[in-house]
Design brief:
The protein is α/β, with parallel strands linked by helices and 343 residues long. The chain is 38% helix and 17% strand. The longest helix has 15 residues.
Protein backbone atom coordinates (compact mmCIF):
# COMPACT_ATOMS: atom_id res chain seq x y z
CA UNK A 1 0.00 0.00 0.00
CA UNK A 2 1.24 3.49 -0.90
CA UNK A 3 -0.12 6.39 1.19
CA UNK A 4 0.41 10.01 0.20
CA UNK A 5 0.05 12.48 3.07
CA UNK A 6 -0.23 16.24 2.62
CA UNK A 7 0.39 18.61 5.52
CA UNK A 8 3.03 20.69 7.32
CA UNK A 9 6.47 19.11 7.54
CA UNK A 10 8.99 20.05 10.25
CA UNK A 11 10.79 22.14 11.15
CA UNK A 12 9.15 23.96 12.85
CA UNK A 13 7.68 21.26 15.05
CA UNK A 14 3.93 21.13 15.54
CA UNK A 15 1.09 18.85 16.48
CA UNK A 16 -0.06 18.10 12.93
CA UNK A 17 3.36 17.19 11.59
CA UNK A 18 4.02 14.96 14.59
CA UNK A 19 0.86 13.06 13.70
CA UNK A 20 1.98 12.82 10.06
CA UNK A 21 5.42 11.52 11.02
CA UNK A 22 3.98 8.96 13.43
CA UNK A 23 1.66 7.65 10.73
CA UNK A 24 4.58 7.38 8.29
CA UNK A 25 6.67 5.54 10.84
CA UNK A 26 3.96 2.98 11.55
CA UNK A 27 3.26 2.52 7.83
CA UNK A 28 6.91 1.75 7.21
CA UNK A 29 7.02 -0.69 10.09
CA UNK A 30 4.10 -2.52 8.49
CA UNK A 31 5.93 -2.72 5.16
CA UNK A 32 4.00 0.04 3.38
CA UNK A 33 5.27 3.10 1.51
CA UNK A 34 4.48 6.66 2.55
CA UNK A 35 5.11 9.83 0.56
CA UNK A 36 4.60 13.35 1.91
CA UNK A 37 3.87 16.67 0.22
CA UNK A 38 4.68 19.59 2.54
CA UNK A 39 1.88 22.16 2.38
CA UNK A 40 3.71 24.85 4.37
CA UNK A 41 7.25 26.20 4.25
CA UNK A 42 9.72 24.13 6.26
CA UNK A 43 12.52 26.16 7.78
CA UNK A 44 15.01 23.47 6.76
CA UNK A 45 14.83 21.11 3.77
CA UNK A 46 16.99 18.00 4.05
CA UNK A 47 16.08 16.17 0.84
CA UNK A 48 14.56 13.06 2.40
CA UNK A 49 13.30 10.36 0.02
CA UNK A 50 9.56 10.55 -0.73
CA UNK A 51 9.27 13.97 0.95
CA UNK A 52 8.38 16.78 -1.46
CA UNK A 53 8.59 20.53 -0.81
CA UNK A 54 6.74 22.22 -3.69
CA UNK A 55 7.26 25.98 -3.96
CA UNK A 56 4.14 26.80 -5.95
CA UNK A 57 0.54 25.62 -6.44
CA UNK A 58 1.48 24.42 -9.94
CA UNK A 59 4.11 22.09 -8.48
CA UNK A 60 1.55 20.73 -5.99
CA UNK A 61 -0.77 19.94 -8.91
CA UNK A 62 2.04 18.20 -10.78
CA UNK A 63 2.87 16.04 -7.76
CA UNK A 64 -0.79 15.11 -7.26
CA UNK A 65 -1.03 13.98 -10.88
CA UNK A 66 2.26 12.06 -10.86
CA UNK A 67 2.31 10.31 -7.48
CA UNK A 68 0.46 7.02 -7.83
CA UNK A 69 -0.97 6.41 -4.35
CA UNK A 70 -3.60 4.01 -3.03
CA UNK A 71 -4.66 6.50 -0.35
CA UNK A 72 -4.36 10.30 -0.31
CA UNK A 73 -4.57 11.78 3.20
CA UNK A 74 -4.84 15.57 3.55
CA UNK A 75 -4.19 17.07 7.00
CA UNK A 76 -5.48 20.60 7.72
CA UNK A 77 -5.65 22.68 10.87
CA UNK A 78 -6.10 26.20 12.15
CA UNK A 79 -8.20 28.53 10.04
CA UNK A 80 -9.60 26.62 7.04
CA UNK A 81 -9.54 29.64 4.75
CA UNK A 82 -9.90 29.94 0.99
CA UNK A 83 -6.38 28.68 0.23
CA UNK A 84 -6.83 25.54 2.33
CA UNK A 85 -10.30 24.99 0.91
CA UNK A 86 -8.90 25.24 -2.63
CA UNK A 87 -6.21 22.68 -1.76
CA UNK A 88 -8.88 20.35 -0.36
CA UNK A 89 -10.90 20.69 -3.59
CA UNK A 90 -7.86 19.92 -5.75
CA UNK A 91 -6.96 16.89 -3.63
CA UNK A 92 -10.54 15.64 -3.66
CA UNK A 93 -10.86 15.97 -7.43
CA UNK A 94 -7.37 15.37 -8.84
CA UNK A 95 -5.71 13.24 -6.18
CA UNK A 96 -5.18 9.58 -6.94
CA UNK A 97 -6.52 6.73 -4.81
CA UNK A 98 -9.04 6.92 -1.99
CA UNK A 99 -9.15 10.34 -0.33
CA UNK A 100 -9.15 11.02 3.40
CA UNK A 101 -9.33 14.41 5.14
CA UNK A 102 -8.14 15.01 8.71
CA UNK A 103 -9.31 18.23 10.36
CA UNK A 104 -7.01 18.96 13.30
CA UNK A 105 -8.45 22.33 14.31
CA UNK A 106 -10.25 21.65 17.59
CA UNK A 107 -11.62 25.19 17.50
CA UNK A 108 -13.24 24.86 14.07
CA UNK A 109 -16.74 24.06 15.46
CA UNK A 110 -16.78 27.44 17.24
CA UNK A 111 -15.53 29.39 14.21
CA UNK A 112 -17.90 31.37 11.99
CA UNK A 113 -17.59 28.79 9.22
CA UNK A 114 -18.10 25.87 11.59
CA UNK A 115 -21.24 27.39 13.10
CA UNK A 116 -22.64 28.07 9.61
CA UNK A 117 -21.96 24.55 8.32
CA UNK A 118 -24.67 23.22 6.00
CA UNK A 119 -24.98 20.74 3.17
CA UNK A 120 -25.81 23.29 0.47
CA UNK A 121 -22.56 25.22 0.72
CA UNK A 122 -19.25 25.35 -1.12
CA UNK A 123 -17.50 23.84 1.89
CA UNK A 124 -20.00 21.02 2.06
CA UNK A 125 -19.45 20.30 -1.64
CA UNK A 126 -15.64 20.27 -1.20
CA UNK A 127 -15.60 18.12 1.93
CA UNK A 128 -17.91 15.54 0.37
CA UNK A 129 -15.24 14.87 -2.28
CA UNK A 130 -13.44 12.81 0.39
CA UNK A 131 -14.29 9.15 0.97
CA UNK A 132 -13.64 9.53 4.68
CA UNK A 133 -13.14 12.40 7.13
CA UNK A 134 -11.17 12.03 10.36
CA UNK A 135 -12.39 14.39 13.08
CA UNK A 136 -10.07 14.88 16.04
CA UNK A 137 -13.00 15.34 18.43
CA UNK A 138 -16.76 14.68 18.47
CA UNK A 139 -17.63 18.37 17.97
CA UNK A 140 -15.87 18.39 14.59
CA UNK A 141 -17.71 15.19 13.65
CA UNK A 142 -21.03 16.99 14.29
CA UNK A 143 -19.96 19.82 11.98
CA UNK A 144 -19.31 17.37 9.13
CA UNK A 145 -22.69 15.79 9.59
CA UNK A 146 -24.14 19.25 8.92
CA UNK A 147 -21.94 19.49 5.82
CA UNK A 148 -23.84 16.50 4.47
CA UNK A 149 -21.45 13.62 5.11
CA UNK A 150 -23.09 10.44 6.36
CA UNK A 151 -22.02 9.12 9.74
CA UNK A 152 -20.30 6.06 8.25
CA UNK A 153 -17.88 8.39 6.44
CA UNK A 154 -16.85 10.26 9.60
CA UNK A 155 -14.37 8.75 12.05
CA UNK A 156 -13.40 10.31 15.38
CA UNK A 157 -9.71 9.49 15.85
CA UNK A 158 -7.63 11.58 18.22
CA UNK A 159 -4.26 12.69 16.80
CA UNK A 160 -2.30 12.14 19.99
CA UNK A 161 0.74 9.89 19.84
CA UNK A 162 1.78 9.00 23.36
CA UNK A 163 5.49 8.27 23.63
CA UNK A 164 7.87 7.99 26.53
CA UNK A 165 11.03 10.12 26.26
CA UNK A 166 13.83 8.35 24.40
CA UNK A 167 16.62 7.58 26.87
CA UNK A 168 19.16 7.85 24.05
CA UNK A 169 18.23 11.50 23.37
CA UNK A 170 20.16 14.13 25.34
CA UNK A 171 18.71 17.46 26.39
CA UNK A 172 21.03 20.34 25.37
CA UNK A 173 23.24 21.52 28.21
CA UNK A 174 21.74 25.04 28.48
CA UNK A 175 18.24 23.61 28.85
CA UNK A 176 19.39 21.03 31.35
CA UNK A 177 21.21 23.67 33.39
CA UNK A 178 18.15 25.95 33.38
CA UNK A 179 15.98 23.08 34.60
CA UNK A 180 18.41 22.31 37.41
CA UNK A 181 18.14 25.82 38.88
CA UNK A 182 14.34 26.06 38.68
CA UNK A 183 11.85 24.99 41.32
CA UNK A 184 9.20 24.89 40.09
CA UNK A 185 9.99 24.88 36.37
CA UNK A 186 7.11 26.08 34.22
CA UNK A 187 7.07 25.07 30.56
CA UNK A 188 5.08 26.31 27.59
CA UNK A 189 5.23 24.62 24.18
CA UNK A 190 3.71 26.12 21.04
CA UNK A 191 4.08 28.72 18.34
CA UNK A 192 5.34 32.19 19.22
CA UNK A 193 2.16 33.82 17.97
CA UNK A 194 -0.39 36.23 19.52
CA UNK A 195 -3.00 33.54 20.26
CA UNK A 196 -0.66 31.87 22.79
CA UNK A 197 -0.71 34.89 25.14
CA UNK A 198 2.98 34.52 26.01
CA UNK A 199 3.53 38.11 27.14
CA UNK A 200 0.99 37.45 29.90
CA UNK A 201 3.01 34.46 31.06
CA UNK A 202 6.21 36.53 31.14
CA UNK A 203 4.52 39.31 33.13
CA UNK A 204 2.98 36.79 35.54
CA UNK A 205 6.45 35.55 36.49
CA UNK A 206 6.91 38.67 38.64
CA UNK A 207 4.24 37.45 41.08
CA UNK A 208 5.27 33.82 40.76
CA UNK A 209 8.81 34.71 41.83
CA UNK A 210 7.57 36.50 44.95
CA UNK A 211 6.13 33.14 46.09
CA UNK A 212 8.78 30.88 44.57
CA UNK A 213 12.10 32.76 44.17
CA UNK A 214 13.69 29.81 42.34
CA UNK A 215 10.90 29.41 39.78
CA UNK A 216 11.64 29.54 36.07
CA UNK A 217 9.70 29.70 32.82
CA UNK A 218 10.92 27.93 29.68
CA UNK A 219 9.19 28.84 26.41
CA UNK A 220 9.67 26.37 23.55
CA UNK A 221 8.73 27.25 19.98
CA UNK A 222 9.28 29.60 17.08
CA UNK A 223 7.14 32.18 15.34
CA UNK A 224 6.61 35.78 14.34
CA UNK A 225 6.83 37.17 17.89
CA UNK A 226 10.27 35.77 18.71
CA UNK A 227 12.14 39.10 18.61
CA UNK A 228 9.40 40.93 20.52
CA UNK A 229 9.34 38.22 23.19
CA UNK A 230 13.12 38.37 23.60
CA UNK A 231 12.89 42.13 24.05
CA UNK A 232 10.12 41.71 26.64
CA UNK A 233 12.20 39.16 28.55
CA UNK A 234 15.34 41.34 28.43
CA UNK A 235 13.36 44.27 29.89
CA UNK A 236 12.53 42.32 33.06
CA UNK A 237 14.70 42.35 36.20
CA UNK A 238 14.08 38.60 36.38
CA UNK A 239 15.28 37.97 32.81
CA UNK A 240 17.48 35.11 33.98
CA UNK A 241 14.37 33.21 35.14
CA UNK A 242 12.76 33.12 31.66
CA UNK A 243 14.35 31.05 28.89
CA UNK A 244 13.15 31.35 25.29
CA UNK A 245 14.64 28.30 23.59
CA UNK A 246 13.50 28.75 19.99
CA UNK A 247 12.44 25.69 18.00
CA UNK A 248 13.27 22.37 19.67
CA UNK A 249 13.14 18.86 18.23
CA UNK A 250 10.16 16.88 19.46
CA UNK A 251 12.31 14.14 20.99
CA UNK A 252 13.92 16.77 23.22
CA UNK A 253 10.55 18.41 23.94
CA UNK A 254 9.27 15.11 25.32
CA UNK A 255 12.07 15.16 27.91
CA UNK A 256 11.17 18.75 28.82
CA UNK A 257 7.49 17.82 29.20
CA UNK A 258 8.51 14.94 31.42
CA UNK A 259 11.00 16.91 33.52
CA UNK A 260 9.11 20.16 34.07
CA UNK A 261 6.84 20.72 37.06
CA UNK A 262 3.90 22.35 35.25
CA UNK A 263 2.93 22.80 31.59
CA UNK A 264 1.23 26.11 30.75
CA UNK A 265 -1.24 26.45 27.87
CA UNK A 266 -2.64 29.97 28.10
CA UNK A 267 -4.30 30.67 24.77
CA UNK A 268 -6.74 33.15 23.29
CA UNK A 269 -7.93 30.55 20.77
CA UNK A 270 -7.16 26.85 20.96
CA UNK A 271 -8.36 23.34 20.22
CA UNK A 272 -7.44 20.12 21.99
CA UNK A 273 -3.69 20.73 22.16
CA UNK A 274 -1.36 17.79 21.59
CA UNK A 275 1.21 19.18 24.06
CA UNK A 276 -1.47 19.06 26.77
CA UNK A 277 -2.23 15.42 25.99
CA UNK A 278 1.47 14.52 25.91
CA UNK A 279 2.07 16.18 29.29
CA UNK A 280 -0.89 14.42 30.91
CA UNK A 281 0.27 11.07 29.51
CA UNK A 282 3.62 11.64 31.23
CA UNK A 283 1.93 12.64 34.50
CA UNK A 284 2.83 16.34 34.27
CA UNK A 285 0.22 18.78 35.69
CA UNK A 286 -1.26 21.23 33.18
CA UNK A 287 -2.73 24.71 33.57
CA UNK A 288 -4.72 25.76 30.51
CA UNK A 289 -7.23 28.32 29.38
CA UNK A 290 -10.76 26.92 29.53
CA UNK A 291 -11.87 26.41 25.91
CA UNK A 292 -14.65 23.94 26.63
CA UNK A 293 -12.76 20.86 25.45
CA UNK A 294 -9.90 20.31 27.89
CA UNK A 295 -9.40 16.90 29.55
CA UNK A 296 -11.00 16.67 32.98
CA UNK A 297 -7.76 16.72 35.01
CA UNK A 298 -6.47 20.00 33.54
CA UNK A 299 -6.37 23.02 35.88
CA UNK A 300 -8.55 25.55 34.07
CA UNK A 301 -8.25 29.35 34.10
CA UNK A 302 -10.17 32.12 32.28
CA UNK A 303 -8.70 33.70 29.14
CA UNK A 304 -5.93 36.26 29.73
CA UNK A 305 -6.16 36.05 33.52
CA UNK A 306 -2.67 36.39 35.02
CA UNK A 307 -4.01 36.32 38.58
CA UNK A 308 -5.77 33.00 38.04
CA UNK A 309 -2.62 31.60 36.43
CA UNK A 310 -0.50 32.54 39.44
CA UNK A 311 -3.10 31.09 41.83
CA UNK A 312 -3.11 27.73 40.02
CA UNK A 313 0.68 27.63 39.97
CA UNK A 314 0.62 28.09 43.77
CA UNK A 315 -1.88 25.23 44.15
CA UNK A 316 0.11 22.77 42.06
CA UNK A 317 3.55 23.79 43.34
CA UNK A 318 2.34 23.45 46.92
CA UNK A 319 0.82 19.99 46.43
CA UNK A 320 2.55 16.75 47.36
CA UNK A 321 0.77 14.39 44.95
CA UNK A 322 3.05 11.82 43.34
CA UNK A 323 3.01 11.48 39.58
CA UNK A 324 1.60 8.41 37.90
CA UNK A 325 4.03 7.62 35.10
CA UNK A 326 3.31 5.25 32.17
CA UNK A 327 5.47 2.25 31.38
CA UNK A 328 5.12 2.08 27.59
CA UNK A 329 4.12 4.05 24.50
CA UNK A 330 0.49 4.26 23.38
CA UNK A 331 0.16 4.20 19.57
CA UNK A 332 -3.51 3.18 19.46
CA UNK A 333 -4.68 6.35 17.68
CA UNK A 334 -2.19 5.92 14.85
CA UNK A 335 -3.07 2.25 14.52
CA UNK A 336 -6.72 3.30 14.10
CA UNK A 337 -5.69 5.47 11.14
CA UNK A 338 -3.82 2.55 9.56
CA UNK A 339 -6.88 0.32 9.96
CA UNK A 340 -8.88 2.96 8.12
CA UNK A 341 -6.34 2.94 5.29
CA UNK A 342 -6.54 -0.84 5.04
CA UNK A 343 -10.33 -0.76 5.00
Amino acid sequence: MHVLQLGPYPPPEGGINRNILAIREELRKAGHRCSIIATSRSTRVTGEPDVHHPRSPAKVLKLLRNIDSDVLHLHVGGDIGKRILALAFVCGVLGRGKKILSVHSGGYPTSREGKAAKRNSIRGFVFRRFARVIAVNPLIAEVFLRYGLTSDRIHVIYPFVHRLPDKNVEVPTEMRDFRAKCSPMLLTVGLLEPEYDLFMQIDAMEKVLTEFPNAGLMIVGSGSLENDLREAIDSKPYRDRVFLTGDVKHKVTLHLLNDCDILLRTTLFDGDAISVREALFLGTPVIATDNGMRPAVVHLIPTHDAGALVDEIKVIAGATTERQTPTRDDMSNVHAVLKLYEA
